[in-house]
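Kindly inspect both lines:
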Amino acid sequence: MGRVVLVTGVSRYLGGLFASRLSGLPDVDTVIGIDLVPPKSDLGDVRFVRADIRNPIVGDVISDDDVDTIVHLGVVSSPVSVGGRASMKETNVIGTMQVLAAAQRAPSVRRLVVKSSTHVYGASAKDPAVFTEDTEPRRLPRSGYPKDCVEIEGYVRGFARRRSDVTVTMLRCASLIGPAVDTSLTRYLSLPVIPTVLGFDPRLQFCHVDDVLGSLERAVAAGVHGTFNIAGAGVLSLSQVVRRLGRPWVALPAALLPSIAAVVPQLRSADLSSDQVAFLSHGRTVDTTAAEKVLGYVSRFSTEEAFADFMAHRPTGPLTSDRLDAVEREAREVLGKVVHNVRR
């Protein structure tokens, strides 16, 4: 008899892609996708259950179908997509607690895979050049998605202690990028004028969406216990990224960015919180040796290749004079608002 896998967050881009991919594997008998809203795209053979992971009903789904593997992808990285920070935290933290509580009560569960983020390492001037999975952050994240990831990982470690019979795999993915990826970072990189932090040029490391999917699939198949960094080899500096995008930029003091982003509509989607500004100041690089040697997954895309693929699939259209004029007008408008707020 094949595996029965429950995937949370299937109405979102990554969750839907992974659930569909998983349903095609020969050793997987049933894939159950769960989310609060129906997916926009066809999930193929995935059986969709409309339910809120913040509700204990998730436990009924696990027990009724004898789920043996849970892949938790129902963590939201941006408040824009769920109507605000309060709803985002409830979905991320309370939702994870409910999933773990249901898994703890279910004797059928044997594997748990959780997608986390390298944001748990924080970002500060005292950071090491490269983070390994055992490196303690010099400055813990204090807000937003990074803080949620820290709390989520704490609950997952608690679950692993209580259910030592369950193989728990946690994947800390670097900044997700690729075709059709919509995150705070990709929205930041798509701004008509990119605000940077005055005096800093951080090193960035990207993780292509195909490598997130590949590492998740490997985690489900391998059943390896542990925490693993997933990222493309190499780094790009923010200045290199901006030059390749061909976008104008303006360097501003770090203390001004969050307040300016709050009043300039075009910047709100980039979620320039204090932790995001810290990341755009100091950057972050992780070591992926454990993923390669223990988990057995080697990223297909380097950081540079992942970014190049993101660039190649951006819906920019032909470089007509009308489009260039429109971009220039929008850039002047945003820059004018930024300068006005700096002078106030």
In short: The chain has a mean pLDDT of 89. Residues 3-177+206-231+285-290 form a domain with the Rossmann fold fold (CATH 3.40.50.720).
